[in-house]
Amino acid sequence: MRDAFVNTFDPNDKRFVLVVRKYVNTANKVIDLTLTPNSTCSLKYFDNNGLKNESGNDIPLQRYADILLTRAEALNELTAAPTAEAFNLINQVRARAGIADLTIVNTPTKEAFRDAILRERGWEFISEGKRREDLIRQDKFISSALARGAVNAKPTHNVFPIPQTEIDANPNIRQNPGY
Questions:
Q1: Closest Cα to residue 112, out of 121, 122, 104?
Q2: pLDDT tens string 135-165
Q3: Which neighbouring-strand residues pair with 22?
Q4: Which of 26, 58, 137, 175 falls between 20 and 30 A from 72, CA-CA?
């Protein structure tokens, strides 16, 4: 994971323990991943209730936090400024994570609240494959990539290429521009 993201966590955030920064290897030696840039990784779930990789039911498709944050985001987009209901929704997620509530004082505008939702979704859905779609929806995917030094990032990367097998199977399908 990128250090720039890992360093945004509140140290009191319960979700932060899911970021593996150190571990003991098979030789009983402590390996500190923070000593090498961008080397930490995610141990996503606190407790998988004894599920194993081969169970096939250990990946949530929809989480309550996603519903809360999606509704907060939608409410924010419908109004000129963040509403009490939108704050209540995001703060339910933050309370479960053990971090302070957002308030109108620290998120006074629609834009500030939009950014707060994006940050919260990053922390909440770490390693769940939602970040790309969140960044695209907020029109920050390409600018974030460029800021990280990905010089080849282009607006065409906001969509995936269509698999050649699909194009071959249907002559009416055209490849997305740029691919």
A1: 104
A2: 999 999 999 999 999 999 999 999 999 999 9
A3: 32
A4: 58
Helices (H), 40-148: 64-78, 84-97, 110-124, 131-137, 141-147
Residue range(s) of every CATH 1.25.40.900 domain in the chain: 64-158
Nearest of 89, 143, 141, 84 to residue 120 by alpha carbon: 89
In the three-class reduction of DSSP (H, G, I as helix; E, B as strand; rest coil), residue 30 is classed as strand
Q: What pTM, to 2 d.p., does this model score? A: 0.86
CATH 3.40.190.10 fits 64-158, yes or no: no
69 φ, ψ (degrees, to nearest 5):
-70, -35
- At residue 169, the 3 state secondary structure works out as helix
